[in-house]
Design brief:
This protein has 66 residues and is an all-alpha fold. 76% of the residues lie in helices and 0% in strands.
Length: 66
């Protein structure tokens, strides 16, 4: 049972870390997505949400200022 809980904690930490890296590369607030990614069972929803969000860093390059 202890091994199962340990594996769940490791999986949760890996998902949280992946949320951090995705938020960092796409230009979204890191603290918000790390906090939401640390909540069990909600972190997978946040991760899928991050995967399909547009990239804010590249979005600024496509807009034309007049």
């Amino acid at each position: 049972m202890t091994l199962f809980v340990t594996l769940l904690l490791i999986a949760n930490l890996l998902i949280t870390y992946f949320c951090l890296t995705k938020a960092k590369t796409k230009g979204y607030p890191q603290l918000t997505f790390v906090f939401l990614g640390a909540i069990p069972y909600f972190n997978l929803v946040v991760l899928v949400y991050l995967l399909f969000l547009p990239d804010l860093k590249h979005e600024n390059q496509f807009t034309v200022s007049i």
